[in-house]
Design goal:
With 365 residues, this protein is an alpha+beta fold. The chain has a domain at 128-312. The chain has 10 helices and 9 strands. The chain has helices at 5-8, 15-27, 38-46, 68-88, 90-104, 160-178, 181-184, 190-193, 201-210, 351-357; strands at 141-142, 147-148, 232-234, 240-249, 255-269, 278-290, 304-313, 341-342, 361-362. β4 and β5 form a beta hairpin. Mean pLDDT is 81; it is low at 1-11, 48-67 and 90-101.
């Protein structure tokens, strides 16, 4: 007769299973929930009663509150200070904001007469290293580059190419008359004279007299720029220029060319060791005719002079001696004259008005 476990009062669980049960009871079944400890239960009861700490989300943090009133006080103070500087030092302010930029930025070529003079600048003395310092001419072109030649077009009897040649030779005359280094040192302007119609008798008479016995009517400076090298020496090789050239059909088939150029010459005394730089400013207007050889006696490649005018600043207001005669130091004639104030850099005024005023007081050099 078989006997089952219950009925027999004994255990039917194998010994191996009983041992495994005892081990798991002691170690705990993997993955089975564990009863929290006494300390954990205390902390769990306290947490709901305390607010949760603030959390930073994606790095965001609130900005600082703006201090509006103090900011406006600072802005007001700065604006008041700026207005005071403008009132006390207007010239210096121009130099701060425009001087350096203007000095580094060349002016565009002059194609028409300007409607106002160049703006005021900080008054700065020129030096041997910077002879155009403090002058509007610092932004002007060098030499022939400042003599603007208009685009040629056929005019009257002359083709476009012929007009272009006439304009180019007119500029050659201006360069030979007012920019040639030998002429500036006092030599006779032979190259420039060679471009003048040798059959124009009144002009030839003027030329022969002007260099021999200069006078108000026969002054070489009416057409040419010359310095007496025993008294005056040019600073460097650069002469600043600004001006323009226009053309139209003239009388008897001529091509009439009008030039209006301002030249700025930096100079020092010829005495050894001189370093006090002054500037002589010459504005000259010369009108010429490229004549029709069928109607006027002329030579190929030459023009006839119609008129000439000149105004000098620190170039001499006394009796003509055939040379530009700048004065240095406190005696310079930029502060002398008839009392009429003249801005030598103002090209908006027709030259005839400037000539009528004679030797005025230059507002700047």
């Amino acid at each position: 007769m078989s006997v089952d476990g219950e009925q027999g009062g004994g255990s039917s669980v194998p010994d191996e299973e009983w041992e495994r049960f005892l081990r798991e009871s002691a170690d705990g079944v993997p993955g089975a929930p564990k009863e929290p400890s006494a300390r954990a239960r205390v902390v769990a009861r306290r947490l709901p009663k305390e607010p949760e700490a603030s959390q930073v989300w994606r790095g965001y943090s609130p900005g600082r509150p703006r201090r509006r009133k103090q900011g406006w006080y600072v802005v007001g103070f700065v604006m008041s200070l700026a207005l005071l500087v403008v009132a006390l030092f207007p010239g210096q302010l121009v130099g701060w904001f425009a001087g350096d930029e203007q000095a580094d930025t060349p002016l565009a070529a002059e194609s028409v007469r300007p409607d106002q003079p160049p703006p005021a600048q900080v008054a700065e003395r020129p030096t041997l290293a910077e002879p155009f310092k403090g002058s509007p001419a610092a932004r002007w072109a060098d030499g022939a580059a400042g003599i603007t030649v208009p685009e040629a077009k056929a005019t009257g009897r002359m083709s476009t190419a012929q007009v272009a040649q006439a304009l180019g030779r007119t500029r050659d005359f201006l360069v030979a008359a007012s920019l040639d280094s030998a002429v500036l040192r006092g030599d006779r302007p032979a190259k420039a004279i060679a471009l003048i119609n040798p059959h124009q008798q009144d002009v030839q008479d003027y030329l022969s007299t002007a260099f021999r016995t200069p006078s108000k009517e026969n002054d070489p400076l009416l057409l040419f720029s010359r310095f007496d090298k025993t008294r005056t020496r040019l600073v460097g090789d650069v002469v600043k220029t600004r001006g323009r050239m226009t053309f139209q059909q003239g009388e008897r088939g001529a091509l009439r060319v009008t030039t209006d150029i301002t030249y700025v010459y930096p100079v020092v005394s010829a005495a050894a060791g001189s370093d006090e730089v002054e500037r002589t400013i010459v504005r000259r207007e010369v009108v010429v005719n490229w004549d029709d050889p069928a109607k006027v006696i002329t030579e190929p490649g030459t023009f006839s002079i119609v008129s000439y005018k000149v105004h000098l600043t620190n170039g001499g207001c006394g009796a003509p001696n055939g040379y530009l005669t700048p004065v240095f130091g406190s005696g310079r004639d930029a502060g002398a004259g008839n009392g009429t104030e003249i801005d030598p850099y103002d090209r908006s005024t027709p030259l005839e008005e400037r000539v009528e005023k004679g030797c005025g007081v230059a507002t700047r050099t």
